[in-house]
What does this fold into?
Amino acid sequence: MAGCAARAPPGSEARLSLAAFLLGALVLALPLLTRAGLQDHTGLALYVAGLSALLLLLYRPPRYQRAVRACFLGFVFGCGVLLSFSQSSGNHFGWYMCSLSLFHYSEYLVTAVNNPKSLSLDSFLLNHSVEYTVAALSSWIEFTLENIFWPELKQITWLSATGLLMVVFGERLRKAAMSTAGSSFNHVVQNEKSETHPLVTSGVYAWFRHPSYVGWFYWSIGTQVVLCNPICGVSYTLTVWCFFRDRTEEEEISLIHFFGDEYLEYKKRVPTGLPFIKGVKVEL
It folds into this structure.
């Protein structure tokens, strides 16, 4: 996988990414520049130019590639905070920007801390799949069009707040699953069992067999509730349900192969956590 960081000193990749993320988030200081007499677009252009130069000065490949992604996500987060507190009809989109950027950055950060051997540029999940990119673009287009023609639809604060709670719940659950699994967690379904790979059944895994999928399921749907996107809300629900149904069955075939009766007993005791998804059927 590109950009592997397995040989880096312990914790160095986490510190690098956090520093870069915070540099990007300093866009929050933009209002101070405008108060100093600069116009919004001038202040933003100066900030982006200075930030780009600083990253080039501080980092060399492959660290630069990791730093620039973390910095970009921090920048999106900072812009999201600014938009959230604006008086525009798109302030709930700011909530979404914060949710999206934190999700992708924390995927990398938690992997860097808990499973650095599997860390790579792909750990940001920014290039997850073509389908994921199309889904994100579709939600932005729907929000923009509905905000133009039906702006009142985007100002249902209680609905957006409900979506934000779903996002927070899903994000916390997924990261708890990643932390509990530690080095056993991987973004790619494994077809070969590592000698150091135990069956994790404690913590959130005592509640759900697939807590990371449950978290992502509710997080993804929650983002569309935040945006008050009725079309993408329904399509996201159907799409991610089908995706995790297939993904769960694929993963459980490997887990049964790895752990045999131990996993089958665990499977009997603990549900998947995903609505109407029971996992792979086992013929006795």
User: Anything to note?
Assistant: Residues 1-6 have pLDDT under 50 and may be disordered. Residues 230-259 form the longest helix (30 residues). The CA atoms of residues 123 and 187 lie 7 Å apart.
